[in-house]
Each structure stands twice: as structure tokens, then as C-alpha cells.
Records
---
Amino acid sequence: MSGCLFCRIINGEIASRSVFSDDNIVAFKDLNPQAPTHILIVPRKHISSLSEAGDGDAQVLGELQLAGRTIAADLKLEGFRLVLNNGKIAGQTVDHIHYHLLAGRRLMWPPG
């Protein structure tokens, strides 16, 4: 997906502040953080949204969550939240599935 913002970051066309990378996952600091720690965790494979994910994407979807765990441990976070927005009405602004890892302040519930 040549026009996809996250695909362009993954391909090195747009600079990012990387915090994690492996064969299937890339994670980088959000440019508009909503918490002191705000990291986007993105699969290298373009999947538009959770609704668009297929059965063959199960492994990479699990790897996204495990990458969140690894990043949180590396950053020695006391607690964190992983958020996945699915669709525009839920707040998804980039059509490439991704988790937001949020930490560094008290996170209230419900998130609203």
C-alpha cells in the first residue's frame, strides 16, 4: 500500500523514533502522544483493520500483543494499556491495524 502512512514508515520513507523492530512488527513513538509513553505497534504486513484481518493473520495479531508486552518490559513500565481502534467511528485514523501502548500516567476507566 504505497499511500499508507504506516507502510511508508515501515519502508523507511518517513522517519520515526523506533523502539522495537523484528521480522513482523515495528513500533515507534507517536507524534501526537496522548500519554507520557505513547507507542504505536504495527505489523509489517498491511492489514487495514481488525475487521479486515483474515484467519491467516492470527499469528501476526498475537505477535502485536506480545510485542507490547516486550516493549513495556524493556521500558520498565509499571502498568500500561494496549488499545486497538477498529474503524473511523472508534477513532482509527490510519487504515493499517495498530495498537497504541499507553503508559506513564493513571489511565482512567471507562476510557471514553
Note: The mean pLDDT is 96.
---
Amino acid sequence: MVAIPAPAKILGFGGLIPFAVTSASVFVLNGNDQLMALDIMLHYSAVILSFLGAVHWGAGLASLTDTSGTRSDTWIRLGWSVTPALVAWLAIQMNLLPSLITFILGFTGTFIFDVWSGKKGWLPNWYVKLRKPLSLIVLICLTLVFIKTYF
């Protein structure tokens, strides 16, 4: 198995910093400051969820020069690639509770699709290996904020 490239690992884990900072802020801040941290976390979630879909757009486009894929595969890959952005766009239109739930489901679904895509050979194995801890940490941050906010 190919090792995770250092730039992908560093930038991937660096991308968790806003999740960690905003989720911690929800626990230590109150009032408007806490609401601002929540707002920042939700908007950052939308950006990252959209980015995760864009990975599939790029991989799908790259495969168009490869004759091994089917027309159906192209529709699945490119069709899926826009789904996380649409989910994120809907989520940031919602109130806090449904928004958090939508992001939790969105990141979970995106990880499941990444694993499935890896098994089909659409994504490199190292990418799926990297996505596992990144997705887990994002889901922990979102779930902790959900629990703190509603219980």
C-alpha cells in the first residue's frame, strides 16, 4: 500500500484545526460569542463538505481520459460529486439543530462513498486511509457540539 503523501497528511490534519477550535469554543464561550463559534463551525463544515465532493469531481474528470470506466460510472462519480455541496448549502439554510444533524449525516455519507469509491478503484487507497481519521475527528467535533447545544 502506498503511504499517504506528506502534503496531503499535513494539510488534511491542518484542516481539522478550525473544527477543533470552534467546537472547543462552544464549550468555553457563552452568549453571542458561542453563537458566533457555532456559525463559524457550520460555515466551515459547508466549505469542507463541498470540498470532499469536489475531490470526486476532479477524480471523475481525470478518469474521462481513461477508457476503462463506463458511462454509468462517470454519471455516478460526477453526480455524487455535486451532492455534498448541495447538502452543505441546504444545511446552512437550516436552524441549528437540523443543520448539525445534516452535517453529521453529510460527513458520514461522504466517508461511506469514499470507502466505496476506494473499493471500486476510483480513489487511491492512501486517500481513503487518510479520510478515516479526518472524518472521525470531524464527526466527533460536530457530535460534541450537538450534545453540548441540545442536552
Note: The mean pLDDT is 95.
